[in-house]
Write a structure and sequence with these properties.
By secondary structure, the protein is an alpha+beta fold. It has 2 helices and 7 strands. A 5-stranded antiparallel beta sheet has the order 3-4-5-6-7. A two-stranded antiparallel sheet has the order 1-2. Helix 1 (21-59) runs antiparallel to helix 2 (71-97). It is elongated, with a radius of gyration of 20 Å.
């Protein structure tokens, strides 16, 4: 997301786009599929990182020597780390370019940039909520979110979400 300057020199966000509540709700089906995949990548990154740390901690720099028995394993783990990191960063950047912010993968918390009452805000959605029913200011957060007028109450979580 790019930033622009207002008259006071403060940085103003320039989202990739602004979402209506209806558009954000229509995008939730993809989020139900995408967020678990992103969480799985992060979980695998943790596992790969722990294994790289274990090898490096035990063998030190010696593990990278051409004749070391664990060198191939370390190199595979390094490549997997780089690949997963790249995929995760690209996917999050794609969402950000579309005006969607991933706030917390574990809880499935995402925000959509929107215009409500003449103010740019975040439409706030969390896994388990049936629709986008809350918003908060850009400098606020989950704890400051308020119901969107006319939104129905959240429904129970979907299986596998």
């Amino acid at each position: 997301m790019e930033a622009d300057r207002d008259g006071d020199g403060a940085s103003l966000p320039q989202p990739g786009r602004l979402w209506s509540v209806e558009e954000a709700n229509a995008r939730l089906e993809e989020m139900h599929e995408l967020l678990p995949r992103l969480r799985a990548w992060v979980a695998r990154l943790r596992t790969v990182h722990a294994e790289i740390q274990r090898l490096s901690g035990f063998w030190g720099r010696e593990v990278d020597a051409p004749d070391h028995p664990d060198r191939d394993l370390k190199r595979r783990l390094d490549r997997e780390w780089a690949d997963l990191t790249d995929r995760l960063e690209r996917e999050v950047a794609r969402l950000q370019a579309e005006g969607i912010e991933v706030k917390d993968l574990e809880s499935g918390l995402i925000d959509f940039y929107a215009l409500l009452g003449g103010e740019v805000v975040f439409l706030c959605w969390q896994r388990g909520e049936g629709e986008v029913g809350f918003y908060h200011t850009l400098d606020g957060g989950y704890r400051t979110r308020r119901p969107i007028a006319g939104a129905s109450s959240p429904s129970p979580p979907r299986p596998g979400s």
